[in-house]
Specification:
Helices cover 39% and strands 21% of the residues. The chain has 430 residues and is α/β, with parallel strands linked by helices. The C terminus is likely disordered.
């Protein structure tokens, strides 16, 4: 297949909080991504800490010489200092790309902080995104730590028909950023549409392109009789139209609504944040209760009766539970990410420097377990892991089964199904 010609602009937050590992690992992955560009692709790099520094005043062809010059520029001129400003560099990035009709513009934003004009940025980007146009910018966002507003970054990526990823700890920056960059720079089918679905609600609401090595997962709602075949249309690298007939199958033994619940809750939460829609917040809370997925508007609690083995209750709103004489209620650590921390960003606090204060030992254990699960999930393929389990002895298999049951109680299995691309193939094999 002929590869798409790409125009790539990297927007890097170089505020003081990005010093040391976050910035150095970002530089390394950006440089590695430059060397993977094809002949004919072009790029530029913008670094922002209140003022914008650019590698070039315009896009440069991705030749060996320009990539070596960009590497030297990054290593010698870019240091972490100053504050966080995202609107100005994003404006400049959008103005640089999309001037030709035969290339795909890609804008990558990397930040670890929150800014006050996030809604303004989203609304500004809406005016630059045109459905059905090849040269409409694709926006990919990567958040580092817990101080940035991940719902803003997710909404920005949804508007720009891209995707969002994050690293809550410094050790996972390289792996997750490389995965995002590799996926986004290898489009196979552009301007994807689902033909024949006239009444539907999709998550994400703007379909991204189909990327190499990553399935295109779409969920949503439909009213009426669902067709037997859904036609998926898009453009190939030679700008010809390609149509895929996707046969519809009914899922009988697989709870697909639970697999998709986490992403739908996240998408609607980002929309509720952008629109400041109270009714949509209530809808997200209701969905969270029905499907047992934590949200920003609900909270997980543990209810223990005096003479009964403590069960794990579903997600409940903070105001919906009360203590009684026969119950002891404990609240594990907050499983949500919040909407950013403007104070920590203004003070240039590095990611993770303010540890969450946990009052109960169980909450500390929960935090450690979630961190270990995140590291494990990022570095191992679910399908390969299950195949490996088939080779172990009976005693080890029993221990693994008990571990998986425990993880399922905390929705880790659903989270894995929603985040690991390999699970799509795994589920079809099972």
């Amino acid at each position: 297949m002929k590869a798409f010609r790409k125009e790539v602009v990297f927007v890097i937050d170089i505020s003081g909080s990005m010093r040391d590992d976050p910035l150095e690992k970002t530089k390394y992955e950006v440089i590695g991504s430059l060397w993977k560009l094809n002949q004919g692709d072009s790029f530029n790099i913008l670094a922002s800490n209140g003022e914008v520094r650019s590698f070039s005043s315009s896009l440069e062809l991705a030749t060996e010489e320009t990539i070596m010059n960009a590497t030297e520029w990054l290593n010698t001129n870019i240091v972490a200092d100053g504050g966080t400003n995202l609107l100005l560099p994003l404006k400049q990035a959008i103005q640089m790309v999309g001037k030709t009709c035969d290339s795909i513009p890609l804008v990558f934003l990397v930040t670890d902080g929150a800014v006050e004009d996030e809604r303004e940025i989203c609304n500004m980007m809406k005016g630059h995104i045109v459905d059905g146009e090849l040269n409409s910018p694709r926006i990919f966002t990567f958040g580092i730590g817990s101080y940035c507003n991940h719902y803003f970054l997710q909404m920005l990526a949804n508007i720009g028909k891209g995707c969002h990823d994050s690293a809550y700890d410094v050790d996972s920056i390289s792996f997750r950023m490389q995965r995002l960059l590799d996926k986004a720079t290898t489009p196979l089918l552009s301007n994807v549409i689902l033909d024949g679905l006239e009444s539907h609600q999709l998550f994400p609401f703007r379909l991204p392109d189909l990327w190499s090595g990553s399935p295109l997962n779409v969920s949503g709602r439909f009213e009426g009789n669902f067709p037997d075949i859904v036609k998926v249309k898009g453009f190939l690298g030679d700008l010809s139209t390609y149509v895929i007939d996707v046969k519809v199958r009914e899922a009988k033994d697989m709870p697909l609504d639970m697999v998709c619940a986490r992403r739908e809750v996240g998408t609607l939460t980002a929309q509720a944040w952008l629109d400041q829609d109270r009714k949509l917040e209530e809808k997200v809370a209701k969905m969270s209760l029905q499907r047992g997925v934590p949200s920003e508007y609900t909270r997980m609690i543990l209810v223990q009766n005096d003479n009964v083995k403590p069960p794990l209750n579903s997600v409940l709103p903070k105001e919906k539970y009360s203590k009684s004489k026969n119950q002891r209620i404990s609240c594990p650590m907050n499983l949500n990410v919040g909407f950013g921390n403007l104070i920590a960003t203004a003070e240039n606090l590095p990611p993770g420097i303010e540890e969450l204060q946990l009052s109960e030992p169980a909450a500390k254990v929960m935090q450690a377990a979630l961190y270990c699960w995140t590291v494990f999930r990022d570095r191992f393929c679910c399908k390969c892991f299950i195949r490996t389990c088939g080779q172990v002895n009976d005693q080890c298999a029993i221990a693994l089964a008990e571990l998986c049951t425990a993880l399922a109680c905390f929705q880790c299995i659903s989270c894995c199904c929603d985040t690991c691309d390999s699970c799509t193939e795994m589920c079809s094999c099972l």
